[in-house]
């Protein structure tokens, strides 16, 4: 059994990005810019945004953190997005979700220029992903795909079983793994809560991607020997032994499943750190493709 | 075993559409309009386009058939699309594919206003389909989904196995059947030529959708008893007994598979006729949603 170390891989990617941006600076060129837009004061969202800004600063990406009151109108937010669509200093626009209930997330996402859609949530980015065109891929599925590359995991003709069908993980990773491309070209099954018996599907997986958001749901008897396990879940469970009174676990019961796995991502330190690394990578891509 | 009669179902849908449009006429209202754009003189494309125009005329949809020489420039074609984007008399724009090699199909499809994208090929339509938003769904997968509805076939929690991953059938029908919606909500497997053994997957299908374009590939021993079979293939095979020297067969060996199936679509007369019916339905939808 081999651990897929997402923390280390993400650090490597960030270092690679930093070297590319250092080179741009040395040449006296412009550098990529990312603007984050946060509405309201959801503490989790604040943590996410500040990690993204911190990553930018480490790598050398210009960043700006817009923070707006929760009672901002939809129109004002749309105008701000439009302003950054036109600002040549910012190549990526990230609107932190969720937004307050009076604002349509769909409208805001669709307002972002597809050329600056570094989160890959715009329907046009998703459509291009499905039909196999190069596009911005949302960061968590892009991070999973990157792990397959970096660990040289064979995927061609393998049976990838995705548990969960969310718009941000399950559906895009399924559509990625279907493509006739390197580190994809897999037979893909997407299963979910409507299945009579999930284990019927999970047991077939050569590569299991658990992304349903249910703590330690995947048990040892639900997988076959040699499975590659990608655990996307991040769940808090009570643990009085921990200083904070809880610990983080994935959707996979690591103790039970890891002895049967050939490769497995831990939680934390697996897929999680890859997400921000891929956001940084998408920002550089936006700059290279559409920047000045 | 029950035959899913696509010809009859398509005729029913066309009759329903005709009644709605007759009602609009009686009320003195505008009616839906469809423009077809054909470039060059591919005989198959000419047949397809004329069937579409004929269907419009039977139903009462205003139609216009633009026919352009094969040496038209990409820019001229894009300008024509733009002209119809702005023409309030045409609610749907259909550019018949394939286009000559010097014209980018992607560019032309992306030039069609998403509000008039009755073929459902625009990336934004595909993206919206994937994330579960109401949109124009391309006509063949929409036709398959409609057959499930009209024949009241149970799909929730069933294992749908799609053979083939084309952008116009395999990928969209897989993404439709995944959605948490009526006549969908299925566990979906997409398999294709990279599979070591396709029958491993096809044998598991509660509902098998064969869309790989390989004559009579699916044999009796590749399916289980009671399977619902949707055969999307249309292949010519030589047959000296037929006046034309060939006959049309699907991707499924009907004689072998039909005795095991609970429902099955024939070829011809199954999925095929549904395609034009769904194009007509999409045109009425475009009119109702975005028309005057």
Main CATH class of the largest domain in chain A: Alpha Beta
Outline type of chain A = globular
Number of strands of chain A: 11
Helices and strands of chain A: which structural class? Answer: alpha/beta
Looking at the overall shape, the CATH architecture of the largest domain in chain A is 3-Layer(aba) Sandwich
The quaternary organization reads as homodimer
Which stretches of chain A are low in confidence, meaning pLDDT under 50 for 5 or more residues running?
Answer: none
Estimated share of beta-strand residues of chain A: 15-25%
Task: Give the helix level of chain A as a range of percent.
Answer: 25-40%
* Strand order in the largest sheet of chain A: 1-11-8-7-5-6
Characterise the protein shown here.
Helix content of chain A is 40%, strand content 17%. Chain A is of the alpha/beta class and 292 residues long. Chain A has two domains: 28-114, Rossmann fold; 139-272, 3-Layer(aba) Sandwich (Rossmann fold), CATH 3.40.50.720. A six-stranded parallel β-sheet of chain A has the order 1-11-8-7-5-6. In chain A, strands 3-2-4 form a three-stranded parallel β-sheet, sandwiched between helices. In chain A, helix 7 links the parallel strand 5 and strand 6 (187-191). In chain A, helix 2 packs across helix 10 and helix 6 (139-150) packs across helix 7 (170-178). The longest helix of chain A has 21 residues, at 6-26. Chain A binds chain B through residues 106, 122-128, 130-133, 156-157, 165, 167, 171-172, 174-175, 178, 180, 185-192, 194-196, 201, and chain B through 106, 122-128, 130-133, 156-157, 165, 167, 171-172, 174-175, 178, 180, 185-192, 194-196, 201. Strand 6 of chain A pairs antiparallel with strand 6 (187-191) of chain B.
């Amino acid at each position: 059994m081999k651990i897929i170390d997402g923390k280390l891989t993400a650090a490597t990617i960030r270092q690679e990005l930093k070297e590319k941006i250092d080179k741009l600076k040395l040449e006296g060129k412009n550098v990529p810019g990312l603007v984050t837009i946060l509405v309201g004061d959801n503490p989790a969202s604040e943590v996410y945004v500040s990690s993204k800004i911190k990553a930018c600063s480490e790598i050398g990406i210009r960043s700006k953190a817009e923070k707006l009151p929760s009672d901002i109108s939809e129109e004002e937010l749309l105008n701000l997005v439009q302003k950054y669509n036109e600002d040549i200093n910012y190549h990526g626009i990230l609107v932190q979700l969720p937004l307050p209930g009076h604002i349509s997330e769909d409208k805001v996402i669709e307002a972002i220029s597809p050329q600056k859609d570094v989160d890959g949530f715009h329907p046009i980015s998703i459509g291009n992903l499905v039909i196999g065109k190069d596009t911005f891929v949302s960061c968590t599925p892009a991070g999973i795909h990157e792990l397959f590359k970096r660990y040289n995991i064979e995927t061609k003709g393998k049976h990838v079983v995705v548990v969960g069908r969310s718009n941000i993980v399950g559906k895009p990773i399924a559509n990625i793994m279907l493509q006739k491309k390197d580190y994809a070209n897999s037979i893909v099954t997407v299963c979910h809560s409507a299945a009579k018996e999930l284990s019927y599907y999970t047991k077939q997986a050569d590569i299991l991607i658990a992304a349903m958001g249910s703590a330690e749901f995947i048990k040892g008897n639900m997988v076959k020997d040699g499975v590659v396990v990608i655990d996307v879940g991040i769940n808090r469970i009570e643990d009085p032994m921990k200083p904070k009174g809880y610990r983080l676990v994935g959707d996979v019961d690591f103790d039970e499943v890891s002895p049967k796995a050939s490769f497995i991502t831990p939680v934390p330190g697996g897929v999680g750190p890859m997400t921000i690394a891929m956001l940084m990578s998408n920002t550089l891509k936006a700059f290279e493709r559409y920047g000045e």
